[in-house]
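Appendix C reproduces, verbatim, an entry submitted by the partner laboratory led by Prof. M.T., so that reviewers can inspect both the input and the predicted structure.
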Amino acid sequence: MTKPRRHDNDRFHDECGIFGIFGHPEASAHAALGLHALQHRGQEAAGIVAYNGEHFRSHRALGLVGDNFSSEEVIRRLPGAMAIGHVRYSTTGETVLRNVQPLFADYEFGGLAIAHNGNLTNAYAARKSLVRRGCIFQSTSDTETIIHLIAISHYSTVVDRMIDALRQLEGAYSLVALTRENLIGVRDSLGIRPLVLGRFGEAYILASETCALDIIGAEFVRDVEPGEIIVIDDKGLRSIKPFAKARSRFCIFEYIYFARPDSVVLGKNVYEVRKRIGAELARESHVDADLVVPVPDSGVPAAIGYAEQSGVPFEIGIIRNHYVGRTFIEPTDRIRHLGVRLKHNANAAYLRDKRVILIDDSIVRGTTSVKIVEMVRRAGAREIHMRISSPPIRESCFYGIDTPDREKLLAARYDVEAMAGHIGADTLAFLSFDGLYRAVGGAGRDGENPQYCDACFSGDYPIKLSDREEGPIPHQLSLLAEPG
């Protein structure tokens, strides 16, 4: 079956957002609100599993959170004081209900639901081994590998079984799990994917970002540490650190694009970091101009920082339509070419005869940049100087981010001057590694010991890519390593 057409396939997309709550009588309603706040992390499917002391109940559906969890009737069918939820953006294969999380399984010790953000880099090899042992897979998500490894573990407790399972897996992940007694949260040993802990009265919350705490009025407690397992039950919270300690390599692209601007990530306000990124960009590559114009919405904070640092006026020269869904129009080549106008339109009165500094967060394939530059040029801009608030993306991500193959990345095919010619800009410049690291609070990138995962820029992959190193996955099994 043909892969569903993305409305915007010239962006990196985070795979998923996760949310868990323990100890609140309206757990599922608050989980739905939390997922609303995390909708930017996945727009193709959503699900919630709740437990009321007797039964697990779930509702999983394709589409947006608001389309599936705004009904009181749906929430009433998910009673209980414990719940976990998930929003999903798929990468390979079709978007089908069997892949929608949280996934659920019945074990000898009782039911367990699990929701996962990230990618297991040895999922294919692990799955082949499990199938040989007789395990029968129901989904095409690598998350199900965790479920089967828990099932065959010889340990007695759920937590020990989960530790046993995760020790056999490689990759970047954060996850939440729900049992009859516990809410469990885990981050991988390098802490590449985010997970935070919050309190809401007597209830505990686990979520991908702090914005999911804000929406329900919960208090941020702390980040779950890399390699940490949080176990929450009627006795309270306990922390377990069963994995070998490693240097943290948090995904730096969370600061550039993925996280919501109002979230606090590792103690830093994302909006403020993006403004600092823009200021660094202005220090490194400023050019005489009349206006600083963001590509909305992701370019806005960096453009504000650039304008403040450079003294060039900030203007909204491109207007975004926030009500764009999938078009009902037959997608002919001409309609696809015009598709960018569904989302963006030039504010020609402000652009005409101006020298414009155009700010965006990244260039992936370059197709959107070509259309944006063309639009601004057609609106009458005299010069267009494009500035990108990240280094050039030259490598694919294998840690839970939807990225094109390397040969489709513009920066992997061209140098910066050729990229400028390709997209039609008068000049083009990217933020340096050191500028990016300074903006997020460091002194620059330490080549020997980088503080963050920046593999999409540098090719420095901190976790082994076992499945990829084994060679191409057979076509008939190519769905098996789909990130959660």
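The two ends are 20 Å apart (CA to CA). Additional entries are available on request from the coordinating office.
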